[in-house]
Design goal:
191 residues; mainly alpha
Length: 191
C-alpha cells in the first residue's frame, strides 16, 4: 500500500536525477534543477505529512541559490576558485557536532509542534541533509558520504510512507552517492 505516483512526483524525480548527474560532473547547471525539484518535493512531502522533509526543501531552494553562487564565484581561503577537496579533521568534527545538535533539536520540534507520525525518523535525514548541502556547496568530497547515509535512511522513510517512486529515486541516489564519491575522489587527487 502507498500513495499512487503523481505527475508532480515523476517530474521531481527526473529533475533530481539530472541534478545529481550534473553535480557529479561539478556542473553549476545542477543548481537551478535543484531549485525546481525542491519546490516540487516541498508540495509532495507536505501532502504526506513529512514536515521535516518539506521544510528541508525550502532550505534546499535557498541553499541552491547560495551553492550556485559558490560554484560560479566562490573562492578558497587563498582566493583561488573553489575546488573539490577533503575536509580537515577540525572541519569534519564541526560537521559532526552540527549534526549531533541539529537532529534532536529538529526531532523535538517536529514531535511537539506538528502532527508528524515519524518525528525522529524524519528529522535524521533532514538534519544530515543540512550538513550535506553545505559540504556540496563548498565542494567538499565528504558531501557524498553524507548523502550516502541520508539516501539509505530516506529509502526506509519513504517506503514507510508509501512514496514508492521516491523510494526508487533514493535507491538510485544511494548508487549515485558512491559514484559521486569516486568521481570527486579522482578530482581531489588531481588537485
Amino acid at each position: 500500500m502507498g500513495a499512487p505516483a503523481t505527475w508532480l512526483e515523476l517530474i521531481a524525480v527526473v529533475l533530481a536525477l539530472v541534478m545529481v548527474a550534473l553535480n557529479m560532473r561539478v556542473n553549476p547547471l545542477a543548481w537551478p534543477l535543484a531549485i525546481a525539484s525542491s519546490l516540487l518535493y516541498f508540495l509532495l512531502f507536505w501532502g504526506s505529512r513529512l514536515y521535516g522533509e518539506a521544510g528541508l526543501q525550502i532550505f534546499f531552494v535557498a541553499v541552491a541559490l547560495w551553492g550556485w553562487w559558490q560554484w560560479l564565484r566562490g573562492t578558497m581561503d587563498d582566493g583561488t576558485a573553489l575546488q573539490v577537496r577533503a575536509l580537515t579533521r577540525r572541519e569534519a568534527a564541526g560537521c559532526s557536532l552540527a549534526m549531533a545538535l541539529a537532529w534532536p533539536a529538529l526531532a523535538l520540534f517536529l514531535d511537539h509542534r506538528t502532527d508528524s507520525d515519524v518525528p525522529w525518523f524524519d528529522a535524521f535525514p533532514t538534519a544530515a541533509s543540512l550538513v550535506g548541502q553545505w559540504l556540496l556547496g563548498r565542494k567538499y568530497l565528504e558531501n557524498w558520504l553524507v548523502w550516502l547515509v541520508v539516501n539509505v535512511v530516506s529509502v526506509a522513510l519513504f517506503a514507510f510512507k508509501g512514496l514508492w517512486l521516491t523510494v526508487l529515486l533514493y535507491a538510485v541516489f544511494v548508487v549515485l552517492s558512491v559514484l559521486g564519491w569516486r568521481a570527486w575522489t579522482r578530482l581531489a587527487a588531481h588537485r
